[in-house]
Amino acid sequence: MSRRASRRPYVLDEQIGFILRQVVQRHVALFDGLMGGDLTPTQWAALSKLAEVGTCSQNQLGRLTAMDVATIKGVIDRLSARGLTKTSADPGDGRRLLVTLTPAGRERVDQAVSGAFQATEDTLAPLTAPERQTLKALLMKLR
Amino acid sequence: MSRRASRRPYVLDEQIGFILRQVVQRHVALFDGLMGGDLTPTQWAALSKLAEVGTCSQNQLGRLTAMDVATIKGVIDRLSARGLTKTSADPGDGRRLLVTLTPAGRERVDQAVSGAFQATEDTLAPLTAPERQTLKALLMKLR
DNA sequence: CCATAATCGTTTGTATGCATACGACCGGGC
DNA sequence: GCCCGGTCGTATGCATACAAACGATTATGG
Fold this sequence. Notes:
The structure is a homodimer. Chain A is mainly alpha-helical. Chain A has a single domain, classed as Arc Repressor Mutant, subunit A (Orthogonal Bundle). Helix content of chain A is about 60%, strand content about 10%. Chain A has six helices and three strands, in the order H-H-E-H-H-E-E-H-H. Chain A has helices at about 15-35, 40-55, 60-65, 70-80, 105-125, 130-140, and strands spanning about 55, 85-90, 95-100. Chain A has a three-stranded antiparallel β-sheet with strand order 1-3-2. In chain A, helix 3 crosses helix 4 (about 70-80). Chains A and B meet through helix 1, helix 2, helix 5 and helix 6 of A and helix 1, helix 2, helix 5 and helix 6 of B. Chain A binds a DNA duplex through helix 1, helix 2, helix 4 and strand 3.
């Protein structure tokens, strides 16, 4: 202990960042268990958003799914290698790479939706319905 | 629209996992900005926990900081390469690798604590004090 | 005392996730 | 027509993050 003690000790376990990391860890574990392990949360985000908005450019899809340009590229590369997505040049803009859900991709989305809902459900299982609403509202302010 | 419409459409932006990912992204960005960019949240977790509990084994430190064995090894390797931590064999247990904060490491911790507090503060800035308490309590249930 | 289970650390492979730099391409203004 | 700032995709490097497989060591049960 030094002459001038810190007013508050820094306790890692009380910091919001550390708590958040653990909550995300638990969620990802639940998610992986429910999706058969062949779709990561990130890959699912890309697939489901594609199903939601239809064909769009790679960068645009990245923005919609909160992914860096380098990250979305890796994700789409892997999804395309597995035949779930398909890319093509944008006829109207030589810079853009259009990303499309393949029939197999759409099938996988349809098949995975219930698991995705369940992942959300399981993650929030310790909370009551009002608590879930409160949590979501508070987190929305911190995005 | 198919004959049998889904009861609820899956909207990515409403899923707790997606919201959590964005909150973590914002927190990490704030953290990096405050710590001079030379300490990641994970590295800081290891350092601050070491300062909190003193020397301990690598795996133990991993558990205390919610890191995988492979992850904590990489973190300690990098911190040791920078002279902030030091490892040694446990005299009492040939399996264990003891991790210790070096004087330089302790100095870096002292110097970084205020920034770490500020990162928590900035992350929670959009919330009132009662809201922060509520959020923390709810997240704790989801660890 | 010894066979077996459990723990510890390492290594490899895969997948994010961000920063940076790069070249290609688009639009607007001149 | 042409430069120029902005956008798009690519490539590389670094740092998590976890699973699986492995060898070494320790603890435990009989």
